[in-house]
Amino acid sequence: MEGMNKRSLGCFVAAAALVGCANTGVVSTGKDTYLLAKQSPQVGFGPPIGVKGEVYSEANEFCAKEGKVVETLKLEQTNSGFARAAAVSLEFRCIPKSP
Q: Residue 34: exposed, middle, or buried by beta-carbon count in 10 A (0-12, 13-18, 19+)?
């Protein structure tokens, strides 16, 4: 039984390494709307807090180049779990800064 546990752990580690960190970058989805999705090989169970921060940081940097700020249209989050990476998908647009 111990050999079985070591083999299962080995398979889990290999799968986690293959998943890696995926990032779409900012992708235009239509007139003035964008999508940014990111996945993290977070170990264990839990929410994608770090990935969410990274996605918003990247979106804000993108909009700041135009002197604008992010307006969230849709935010989807997936908690990490067994054989599932934490992930965030942000649909947004860049709007003028409020005075």
A: buried
pLDDT digits (tens, 9 = 90+) for 1-36: 444 444 433 333 333 333 445 788 999 999 999 999
Q: Calculate Rg over the CA atoms of the chain.
A: 17
How far apart CA 44 and CA 37 sit, in angstroms, is 20
12: its two tokens: 């889990």
Q: What pLDDT does residue 75 have?
A: 95
Give the number of other CB atoms < 10 A from CB of residue 77.
15
pLDDT in tens, 63-92: 999 999 999 999 998 888 777 788 899 999
CA angle 57, 59, 60 (to 5 degrees): 65
CA angle 86, 87, 92 (to 5 degrees): 155
Residues 6+ apart with CB under 8 A from 96: 67, 68, 69
